[in-house]
Amino acid sequence: MSTADIIARCEALYEDLDFTAARKWKEADPSRKVIAYMPVYVPREIIHAAGMLPLGIMGGGDGLEVIHGDAYYQSYICRIPRSTIELGLSKRMDFVDGMLFPSICDVIRNLSGMWKLLFPGKYVRYFDVPQNYKDDVGGSYYTNELNELREGLEHLSGRKISDDALRASIEVYNENRKLVQAVYAMRSREPWKVPSSEVYLLMRAGLVVPVEEHNQILRDYLAAAEKVQASKRDNCRVVINGSFCEQPPLNLIKSIELAGCYIVDDDYMIVHRWLRNPVSTSGDPMQNLSLAFLHESIATAAKYDDKEEDKGKYLLEQVRGNAAEGVIFAMPSFCDPALLERPMLADRCSEHNIPYISFKYAENSGQMQPIREQAGTFADSIKLWS
Amino acid sequence: MSAATSPEVIKESSMLKQKGMIAGNYDRLTGTKESGEKVVSTFVPGNLNELIMCFDMVNNLPETNAIQNGMRKVSGGMIMDAEKAGHSEDVCTYVKADIGMMGRGNIAPNGKPMPAPDMLLLSYTGCFTFMKWFELLRHEYKCPTVMLQIPYQGDGKITKNMRDFVVKQLKEEVIPMFEKVSGVKFDIDRLREYLKNSAKAEDNLVWVLESAKNRPSPIDAYFGGVYYIGPMFTAFRGTADAVEYYDLVRKEIEQRIREGKGPITPEGDMKEEKYRLVVEGPPNWTSFREFWKLFYDEGAVVVASSYTKVGGLYDQGFRHDPNDPLGTLADYCLGCYTNNNLPQRVELLEKYMNEYQADGLLINSIKSCNSFSAGQLLMMREIEKRTGKPAAFIETDLVDPRYFSHANVKNRLESYFQMVDQKRSGASLAAA
Ligand code: SF4
Ligand code: SF4
């Protein structure tokens, strides 16, 4: 299989806002259940161990006509909640049995309550995570939260989730993390062979198909990409920051590449890379997931940095680890977490002489020309001054 | 969000008392260089004033500073300063007003510069922005910062796990940090004494808020309400001053009820009570007086509001409990209005509509505040559906004058009052 074949399949999954693949998965066995989740992180291992399919929802993108959703939101609120409501009200998610709303911002937080009001009878959980990273403080709180999630899913399916099943699921997701990291590493090494738009679509696919299938897609892609013949361009290497929730249109990512930037790291769909190392499969699995969250999570605006000196540390690592020459802060309009975080990250970049630019987008932004020009000028200036 | 200073023209003795208390706190804040007192900055929801007092520290609430600046009409320039310095036009204006104020020397209303905080108590209650806001302040001040995470009531209840987590953070993070910064050892009995004062004052605050069930209502529970919640939500809960203040207010309102008077407004007693409203959302501060006037000119009185619950749902039964000092602080933080989920918020508003015999609901949707605003359109529909009463939606901002359009708000309110009239005449026709 060529990379083009694989990406064509991923693109079809990405464009399918009826989630046909997930529907089919569910239809294959009447006992199956699907649990949707929003950005930015949920422990999918627990859903998987319950025999359910975790389904990542990233809004409706630029392919969805929002008819009802706008009536639920003021103009000064980002797009993702309104297109997500649209997905719900237009019955595109009618096969979904439950939905998790991670603790990322007040918009998603409030959406959890809206979901309860709009879809009574569905399993809805606001998924809280600790902002305190001590094992016996934030850790014990989080372990209990995870257990509540486990019990909620057990109640939904009428089946217990065994520790062994959890360990097995952790194993599968460890494999997934390894493969995802391998794709990212390959792109960083040879971005001319692994375009960012492809990486993006590969990761999007991982939100809507079973993890085992995603693992196979990633393996196939890695093998196929090795054989790609492409020549290196005189592009500059950039890290994207701020796009962890509402997603840019695919065209925006392509525009950045066309403007002369190799994206060598990003924060799109960080659920796949939230935990930086494998989670232990021995001992208490809930404890292990909890500890991994406390000590192995990447940094993002939705997380509290315990110490001032840690602010921007992860971004600096992304820059250095990938030999990036600049940072593009690309954030959804009206996204409080990303936009409030940016000045602090920008200061860190300045302190370390890392050039950066910023712009805002919406998931349905149509005009790419200004962004292409801005990214192009940025790339030129980096080449000129580096 | 926070309680404001009172509008200047209310000249009851409680008003003068509150004015004195606020001025005293600003004098204390700006005099720390001489007094050697330490300053802690924290937020109104989840404000642990009793605990702060145990360490002899002075409480500085940046939301209140932003409101002060809003009412004195200087916040607009501060916000623009912050935007020029790289803060997005899309984010909460309290944050930008605060950052802009810092850039202009942090001048308090008494004209003196405020000291840099010795500590930031990031009481992360009911608003995600709080976390980023204090990270931004820490980024500037580089001072000790302690996070107190208050889990959100996603399922509409406070679980044991949430409560234990908050108590543990108080014991293992917050109190040790206070001891370190202040040099004062924590004394739980001292805390108990302050909590006793809090509960006394809370009883009277509830009495005052519930007095709006009378017809005519002797108070306005939104525009006047911000004045009544002032001491309770800011640097005075737990003090003898606050106890005295709420005694005083209660007596004044009792007198108004005896005299059959409506609420006091900046232009004197409100005459006829034509409309009784429930309001959801914070007020606009930059045009506070003009905004209020649009209501009392039409004979509209707000009988209950959600904004006056951001610092605690006392009217739903919560009282600080001296017998369980840390547990009660946890319950308090967990119970603030914006830490309630949307179905709980809808239920509360519905309850207010019924218990206060309101004619309708008005939502003042604040551009800055996702915590309040995201979901309000659905809340509006739910209330209309459940009560059959008309609801209206207006959009303004807290302290950014660019987002207060007097003409728009006026038009909207006028047509809303007409709608209420129509609904009433429809109802009386149907009854005839
Ligand atoms: S885009 Fe930003 S503000 Fe909007 S839901 Fe996502 S994190 Fe929240
Ligand atoms: S977002 Fe709302 S609650 Fe949060 S700081 Fe701003 S005004 Fe206050």
Descriptive account of the structure:
The complex is a heterodimer of chains A (386) and B (432). Chain A is α/β, with parallel strands linked by helices and 386 residues long. Chain A is built from 14 helices and eight strands. In chain A, strands 2-1-3-4 form a four-stranded parallel beta sheet, with helices on both faces. Chain A has a four-stranded parallel beta sheet with strand order 6-5-7-8. Chain B is α/β, with parallel strands linked by helices. Chain B is 51% helix and 11% strand. Chain B is globular and about 70 Å long. The structure holds iron/sulfur cluster (2 copies).
Question: TL;DR?
Answer:
Chain A has helices at residues 3-15, 20-27, 44-49, 80-89, 106-118, 135-157, 163-189, 196-208, 211-226, 250-258, 285-296, 313-321, 336-351, 369-385, and strands at 34-37, 53-56, 98-102, 123-127, 236-241, 261-265, 326-332, 356-361.
Helix and strand pattern of chain B:
HHEHEHHHEHEHHHHEEEHEHHEHHEH
Rg of chain B, Cα atoms, Å: 21 Å
Give the terminus-to-terminus CA distance of chain A. 39 Å
Distance between the termini of chain B: 45 Å
- The total beta strand count of chain B reads 10
Quaternary form: heterodimer
Shape of chain A: globular
CATH class identity of the domain at 11-187 in chain B: Alpha Beta
Strand count, sense and closure of the main sheet of chain A?
A: 4 strands, parallel
- Based on the coordinates given, report the CATH architecture of the domain at 11-187 in chain B: 3-Layer(aba) Sandwich
Organism (chain B): Thauera phenylacetica B4P
GO molecular function (chain B): benzoyl-CoA reductase activity; iron-sulfur cluster binding; metal ion binding
InterPro entries (chain B): Benzoyl_CoA_Rdtase_B, FldB/FldC_alpha/beta
Pfam families (chain B): HGD-D
